[in-house]
């Protein structure tokens, strides 16, 4: 079975990554909505300085993140069903997806398109720095995990390139 | 509230009855079809009839009765009634598989003729995800960003047309996305997923647009509340549709070849 699993993993390496990325985008958007909009109430539903393109970008990403959360989890179950789940690579995707979305949200959506600010206080810059640093950290963790799992073979085994 | 003012703004009993009547007929026909077809074939699943009954219930309370009355003067109530009429009722009715029930109830020549209509080119156009999304979301943009919303409150005819449109477009949109009934012109999961995300985005963007730019005649505080009901209510119903769409993908993509080899 172990050999089979390795074979399946290499075939579904990409699907592991994509399932993780989709779920990561969905998860971070969900945290954004529940923690920052609903619980803390730092984010505003609508900010008077929002640009039109900001409204469109926000709408598209919000819709996409709903779909991505559910779709990503169904892909996860599909990988398990096929014995092809590769958790390390999947987590790599989750961190990358979450980090890229948080960075996009923190720079382009908050600053350039001004959809809303993190919190309506004086020293906003501190919030922005923490927000975007967290995003970059998540991207680094994600990329590290993805690079580590780049080879379809498990460490210690002879490399074979039949599925490359 | 001023009583005269209230009477002036309430929709009359006649338009409410006109809007509710097709739904009452639909529940009667559905139950009759279940009874008739159960005599000859295996029992029709109870849960489908339950879906239909709740779908009809939500449609009726949004066009007639106290909620419909309040919807006329209160934008938040209006949004609730539109969520029920345009999203929740269509979803429940689609889950009740009315087309399947009709085809198994009618005799073969008649059922053949109906399936021929379903396969015709107009049916192909209306059940295309892009066309259905455009009718659904485009119609909403037209309603809330032009004078149509305030005109609808002055003309009984417009009131009836808008409400039927909201329901029908919502139903077409739902059946173009999730295939419960037989549908001859199927499109791929990815295609439906992409169109769905764009349609959902159009709905969310419109909600926030209403928040900032209330339709003519709607006070700002009502518009803000209504916009948030539209935004979050739409999200809740849409995740059910996304879940069903993904579940169908999950079933369709099950590893059959793998099993055959083993």
TrEMBL record, chain A:
This is Membrane protein. Keywords: Membrane, Transmembrane, Transmembrane helix. The chain crosses the membrane at residues 21-40, 60-79, 86-104, 124-147. The keyword Cell cycle does not apply. It comes from Oceanobacillus indicireducens. InterPro entries: DUF2243_membrane. It holds the Pfam family DUF2243.
Automatic annotation (TrEMBL), chain B:
It is found in: Cell membrane. GO terms for cellular component: plasma membrane. It is a multi-pass membrane protein. It comes from the Bacteria. The keyword Ligase does not apply. The chain crosses the membrane at residues 12-37, 49-68, 80-104, 125-144, 156-180, 189-211, 231-250. InterPro entries: Caa3_assmbl_CtaG-rel. Keywords: Cell membrane, Membrane, Transmembrane, Transmembrane helix. The keyword Membrane applies. Its main location: membrane. This is Membrane protein. It comes from Oceanobacillus indicireducens.
């Amino acid at each position: 079975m172990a050999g089979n699993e390795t074979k399946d993993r290499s075939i579904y390496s990409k699907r592991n990554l994509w399932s993780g990325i989709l779920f990561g985008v969905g998860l971070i958007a969900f945290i954004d909505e529940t923690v920052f909009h609903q619980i803390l109430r730092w984010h505003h539903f609508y900010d008077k300085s929002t640009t039109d393109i900001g409204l469109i970008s926000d709408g598209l990403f919000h819709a996409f993140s709903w779909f991505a959360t559910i779709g990503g989890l169904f892909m996860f179950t599909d990988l398990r069903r096929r014995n092809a789940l590769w958790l390390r690579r999947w987590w790599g995707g989750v961190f990358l997806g979450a980090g890229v979305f948080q960075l996009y949200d923190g720079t382009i959506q908050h600053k350039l398109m001004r959809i809303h600010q993190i919190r309506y206080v004086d020293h906003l810059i501190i919030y922005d720095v923490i927000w975007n640093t967290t995003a970059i950290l998540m991207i680094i963790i994600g990329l590290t995990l993805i690079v580590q799992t780049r080879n379809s073979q498990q460490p210690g085994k002879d490399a074979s390139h039949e599925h490359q | 509230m001023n009583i005269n003012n209230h009477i002036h703004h309430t929709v009359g009993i006649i338009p409410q009855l006109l809007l509710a009547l097709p739904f009452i007929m639909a529940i009667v026909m559905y139950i009759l079809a279940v009874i008739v077809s159960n005599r000859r074939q295996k029992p029709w699943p109870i849960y489908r009839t339950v879906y239909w009954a709740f779908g009809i219930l939500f449609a009726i309370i949004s066009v007639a009765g106290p909620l419909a009355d309040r919807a006329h003067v209160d934008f938040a109530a209006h949004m609730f009634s539109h969520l029920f009429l345009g999203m929740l009722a269509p979803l429940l009715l689609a889950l009740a598989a009315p087309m399947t029930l009709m085809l198994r109830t009618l005799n073969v020549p008649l059922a053949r003729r109906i399936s021929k209509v379903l396969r015709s080119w107009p049916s192909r156009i209306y059940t295309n995800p892009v066309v259905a999304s455009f009718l659904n979301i485009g119609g909403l943009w037209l309603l809330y960003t032009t004078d149509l919303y305030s005109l609808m409150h002055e003309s009984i005819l417009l009131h009836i047309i808008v409400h039927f449109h909201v329901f029908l477009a919502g139903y077409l949109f739902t059946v173009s996305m999730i295939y419960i009934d037989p549908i001859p012109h199927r499109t791929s999961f990815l295609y439906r997923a992409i169109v769905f995300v764009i349609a959902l985005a159009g709905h969310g963007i419109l909600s926030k647009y209403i928040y900032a730019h209330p339709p003519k005649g709607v006070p700002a505080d009502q518009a803000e509340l209504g916009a948030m009901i539209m935004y979050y209510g739409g999200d809740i119903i849409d995740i059910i549709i996304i879940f069903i769409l993904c579940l169908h993908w999950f079933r369709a993509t099950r590893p059959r070849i793998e099993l055959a080899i083993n």
